[in-house]
Give the backbone structure.
Amino acid sequence: MTSAAVKYKKSFFEGNKAEEEFIKLRGDNFIRKADRSEDMKQHWDVLDKEFGKVDIKAPKRRERGGEIDYSIHWWEFKNVLGNLGWGSPNGTDRYIAFRVKDKFILVDPSVVNPILETKCTEYFRGMWGLNTRRGRKDLFAMIPVDFLLEHAEHVVEI
């Protein structure tokens, strides 16, 4: 395991669990998983017959170590290296599938990211606030699940 995988073992487990759950729900629509390069550079996890490339996000917490909060998710504008984050359009047609309490909500980052860039403009800890971590070049924001539902292009019920 990489050092990140050891440090964030619980997060990796939850992410893999969400991917497997999505694959199972999609049944015969599942084609294959992304390889490491596709996952890291193009930001997608699963190739689906109906949806195409899909990046799957597990349920999130407001704070590391806290309880899962199905009313929020996080949106990544830039990754830890300062490169385009998984929420930013990157030339790859894909959906982002957010796991919430009873469904996966699929949104198109090329539609949603520009809206979030106008809503998330100030740095603070809370809904719509921009966040970064000391020593990293990442940029992300907490967003309400209701916003994702409002902009959903597809929903996969559980």
Q: What stands out?
A: The beta strands are 30-33, 46-48, 52-57, 72-78, 94-99, 103-107, 130-131, 139-144, 154-157. Residues 3-157 form one domain.
